[in-house]
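Lab notebook, entry 331. We have the chain sequence and a SMILES string for zinc ion, and the next step in the workflow is to get a structural model of the bound complex before anyone spends time on docking refinements. Request logged below.

Task: model protein plus zinc ion, output structure tokens.
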Amino acid sequence: MLCSTPAGLYSPAGDFYIDPVRPVERALITHGHSDHARSGHAKVMATQQTLDIMGLRYGASFAGETQAAELGKPIGLNGVSISFHPAGHVLGSAQIAVEKDGTRIVASGDYKRRADPTCLGFEPVACDVFITEATFALPVFRHPDSRDEIAKLLKSVEQFPERSHLVGAYALGKAQRVIRMLRDAGYDQTIYIHGALGKLCDYYETQGIALGPLAPATIEKGSTSDFAGAIVIGPPSAFLDRWARRFPDPVSCFASGWMRIRQRARQGGVELPIILSDHCDWDELTGTITELGPQQVWVTHGREEALVRWCDLNGFAARPLHLVGYEDEGD
Ligand SMILES: [Zn+2]
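Result returned:
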């Protein structure tokens, strides 16, 4: 029903790929991050939000034709039944359930279990085979309470009113989550955003996720003091270029699950690590497998070995999938 190929997870029965890494005839896409959602497929099926996001990122002609999948509503494809279910990863993200002859496989894509005010929560779907990501599949990865991490940022802003706080956050999902969580914590000042975030933030607003006052992080009058005390959000890549140098004595912050590793934060020159992930931590991964109780677990992109070993020790048949080409842009 599903097997791994160089182009990605393929269904010989249904003749489709899930999140293929090469252009294919028919692709089912779990979410809009660039390593999962690529342009150039002939036919693409995804949630309407994921299709919209792909259109924003790649232009309207990103695929030959598109079909929007409604959450929870089965669609027949060459005798295989397919349904999309919320994955809790980013806006529009979905798990894809594939069913034939009474056997159901759920490809969860990227997912997380904790609350995120910018997308629907993960919905457990009973299945025979559960395909799980393994981005943070080591016991060292235990994400702290997200609200405490946002509180750390706000405390620093209060402590250093003369400095700007430059927050690295992935353009799709993480940036909007940080902004929304700042609002939920009572921060009502204008938040300045890098140009790469504009279209996606606007799109989130159209989907009912209010982000409050945002303004482009550009200096028009040439005065860097404009940003003293401000929170500025940009994609991590922007921190390496000239863009970052315009802000006054910035506190460099990075919102990522990787910030759990101090050494990694230090190497990246991050002064204020914000441990905020759009992926499951170790407890969420093992908790989800325990909750679903599938007959088999297939493990992909990340630290496959550790999770496969945990499954073996806990009575779940498991194997790594060895899919290549996924370097999640939204960790
Ligand atoms: Zn992702």
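Notes for the group: The mean pLDDT is 94. Worth checking against the assay data. The chain is about 20% helix and 25% strand.
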